[in-house]
User: Fold these one by one.
Assistant:
Number 1:
Amino acid sequence: MISVTVENNIDASKLNTTQSIPIGPSSVPLLSWKNSSAEELNGIKKWITDFLCNPHPSLGRSGDVCPHTKEAINKDSIFFTVENSFHLDKESEMKRIANQIELFKELKTANAESYKVIINVYPYINSAEYFKIESIQNELKPIFVESSLMIGQFYPGCKEKGLWNDNFFPLDSPIALLAIRNMAITDIAFLMSNNTFVKKYLDVFGEKGEKFLNKIIEHKKDMLLR
């Protein structure tokens, strides 16, 4: 059982590049988009603005790859942690990331709760460590979903398929990441393989979620017939 402890009522507007917030066995700086000047974040911020904030010909729909990211940047509701290790201790990292469930809930943003994201960045690990990112995401996913949150794994070569095109891989990022955000109605694509996840999704989104689920099922059927 992973224990979770965190300080209450964290005001995101008061965060800066030197402030540390306990989110696991030790204190780690939590950096907002506007206050994150760390050199290690330059590459991932560029990928976010160049890739996630723009359309892509293989996306399978109109609009940006991630339709909420531009607004999240404008509202300064994206927060980063930077893990400086070259080799991850999986168990310690799982505890730190699990602790972010409560951190995420207590982190207050001004009129931007639905756009709030915590991105854990691993700029120094190499491809031999990517399986740990995948494993941490997979093992922690149930407790995040139960809390109506999503945890996403990103790394170079990630083969997680897009919602509208099985040949589009939006989680293929230049730097390894673990991202945490509120569950969105489009997340059913990442939840359909588990009945417990689907039930939670329907509990969160109700009739709208059921309609979107049926839409995705029909889309998948159409893809199989092509």
Number 2:
Amino acid sequence: MRVGFNIPDLTSNGSALIETGLINRIVLAADPGAGGGIQQFLLLFGPLFVIWYFLVIRPQQQQRRKVQQMLSELKTGDRVVTTGGIYGTVVGFRDSVVQLQIANQVKIDVARTAIGGMQSSEKSEKDKLDK
């Protein structure tokens, strides 16, 4: 018993030679020429990249700039919400840590990057009216 690949016998009927010839013709017919390959690639993927840039990459860059600007402009007394959903008032800073007061005599330290955004002024005014 032989283990391995069966190598066709080319001397018996020549069918393997014909099959190989057909495969070569199909493969060569699929390649219209090396000169047009890069042009076709750019023609197909160029517009896709431009669309991807304007729909995905550019909005992410703008959002990142907004968040960076908001984090750099944080000051004591700002009402913020963390990415974990905790609302608090900024009471102090250390390197990359922000100290938030979330209730009377309750302060927590969070990473500056964990600040998700500023609390809207409507909520601040509503909280003041409730007290």
Number 3:
Amino acid sequence: MPSALRGALPSALRGALPSALKDRGSEPEFHKATPSTSAAAALILRATAVIAVTLLVSASTFADSGADVYKMRCSACHGANGAGQTMIGKNLKLRSLASPEVQNQTDDQLAAVTSQGRNKMPAYDRKLSKEQIAAVVKYIRSLKN
């Protein structure tokens, strides 16, 4: 097997590589597809698809950090720093998320307000997962004065 492939493939796939890729002198020989080479190609294709899906899921998980969710869903009213100094925040007379009144609430209370809404604030229980809401609460905790 070419040394470039040897370290790049998991051991389960190494045995499945078609014989056409095995070392035969300085250059590998390529032959017509056989049932064994087709099966190996299908296995490699499936493994590639699994890796791609895993990377996509991981990327979406990282994108859902508390700061990202806050920026996407909360900052229009509460502002980038949580002070509520946006046009909407001023009209609604929002208190700063760094204020003692907000920071003294429990995580469960902050999560309930985020999930169920309060006054003019909409509920986010159908728009955000419990994990995203917990991440936003953690982010709100970082806004302390």
